[in-house]
Every structure is written in C-alpha cells, then in structure tokens.
Amino acid sequence: MSGTDARVLTISPGTRSRTSITTFCALLWSGFRRYATYRQATAAGAFTNIVFGFLRCYVLLAVAAGAPGGRPGGYDPEQLATYVWVGQGLLVVVGIWGWTDLSDRIRSGDVAADLLRPVPPVTAYLAADLGRGLYGMLTRFVPPVVAGLLFFPFKTPDRWQTIPLFAVSVALAVIGSFGCRYLINATAYWLHDARGPLVFWTLASGVLAGLYFPLRLLPDWLAVTLWVGTPLPGLLQTPLDVLVERDGPAIQVGLVALQAVWAVVMVKAAAVVQKRAERKLVVQGG
C-alpha cells in the first residue's frame, strides 16, 4: 500500500514458529497491560495482604512456640515467617482465586467470538495469565516480603540453587494454577453457570494449596497423598518449601519435577475439555 506502513501478521511454513512466539508474547504483554491499569486496586490489595500476613504469621509462630522442640512440621520460626510472608506475596502472582473471564464469556455467549480467533482459547488465556502473573510479581510480591523482613527474622537460603529453583517453581505454579482455574471455569459449558464450582474451588484451594497452613502439619500419609494425587500443593506449598529449604536438594528437585508434571497435565486437560466443549456447542447448533 503506497504511503502506508501496513504490516500484516501472516503464518507460513517457514515462519510459523517465530510467528507463534510473537503472538504469544503479544498476548502476554496485553495481559500485563490489562492489570497494570488497576493501580489503586493493586495498592489496596497489597495492603490487605500485609494485614493478613501479620495475622497468619503470629498464629503460626504461636503454634511453633507451643510445639515440642519449637519446630511444627519441621519448620523453625524463621522458616515459618518466610513461608507466611512470601506466601502472601505469591497469592496474587499464582492467582488461585478471582479469575472468571472464561465462565463469564460462556454465560454471556461472547465465547463464540473466542472460538473464531486463530489462537486457541487455552493458549490465548494462558499467555494473558502469564502476563498477569508477571505484573503481580513486580507489584504485589515485593510489599508483603519487605513488610515481613522489617518485622520478622527470615530464613535466607544456604544453597545457591535454591533461588533459581524457586523461580522455576513459581512459574510452574502460575501455569498449574491456570490449568486448574480454566477447568473450573469450563464447567460453565455444561452447567451454564460456574459459580457453584468456583465457590467450592475457593474454599478448597486455599486449604489444600498450603495457603492457610503448611501441609507438613498434616499427617504424613495425607500430605503425601495430596502431593502425589492432586496438583494443589504445587500452587503454593512447593515453591514455599523450596525457598525455605525444608528438604534436601534432591527432594527439592523432585518436588519441582512433580510440580512440572502436574502443570503439564492440567494444561493438557484444559485443552481436551475445551475441544469437547467446542464439539458440544456444534452439536447444539452454536
């Protein structure tokens, strides 16, 4: 077009990989920009996380003070303080609550527009959710951690591999959380209203993900069952245990590997459910 800098994103056999990466990054950036517009909500949310951080920290430190040897579940007071405050920072990064975009669009019928786009819904929503998690890491993670450092002694890592392993674990937690939330939202394809499953998810995920208390406080058989049989401990418990070095290096790596397996399983399950839902819409004449 003469006089116009018109650039159209096309996909050809020679550029498919590069185009896919470019599209994914663009969707990720759009998710980041979307949540960056809510500055007052970000500040208010960070303040709320700090307030609840004090409540949770004092409760767990009181439990530690009354436990034999002062190490409930194998955590010393410094590890518990670190667990609480970093957990408060990760709560929004991982985002186990509050996402209803898919179920809202299914109920309104707007999901039909999503199905016409060249990017599959699971991929598009995953990219946007990673952008949301990145924004949360930059804005919601730091204030609770700084507040905790000012008032409580923290556990500093003794092993060099802990920090990179923690970063990998957090990324996997965001992906695994997305897969779980997508599946809960996708129930609206069959129920037409996912509020019931969402309420159940809100109640169960906080407990079973290790938000309210470390799962190591539970009986060993129950904690192991939750870890192996569900993806929920990988949402918060695993990255926090990695950071406070609750286990040795080999177990740390094993927990992150298990977390990676569950993240892949949940995203794959979301893709399968989405495909079945699309066939269901076609059969119903949608």
TrEMBL record:
<feature type="transmembrane region" description="Helical">
    <location>
        <begin position="160"/>
        <end position="184"/>
    </location>
</feature>
<keyword id="KW-1133">Transmembrane helix</keyword>
<feature type="transmembrane region" description="Helical">
    <location>
        <begin position="196"/>
        <end position="215"/>
    </location>
</feature>
<keyword id="KW-0472">Membrane</keyword>
<keyword id="KW-0812">Transmembrane</keyword>
<dbReference type="Pfam" id="PF06182">
    <property type="entry name" value="ABC2_membrane_6"/>
</dbReference>
<feature type="transmembrane region" description="Helical">
    <location>
        <begin position="80"/>
        <end position="99"/>
    </location>
</feature>
<feature type="transmembrane region" description="Helical">
    <location>
        <begin position="43"/>
        <end position="68"/>
    </location>
</feature>
<protein>
    <submittedName>
        <fullName>ABC transporter permease</fullName>
    </submittedName>
</protein>
<feature type="transmembrane region" description="Helical">
    <location>
        <begin position="250"/>
        <end position="271"/>
    </location>
</feature>
<feature type="transmembrane region" description="Helical">
    <location>
        <begin position="134"/>
        <end position="154"/>
    </location>
</feature>
<dbReference type="InterPro" id="IPR010390">
    <property type="entry name" value="ABC-2_transporter-like"/>
</dbReference>
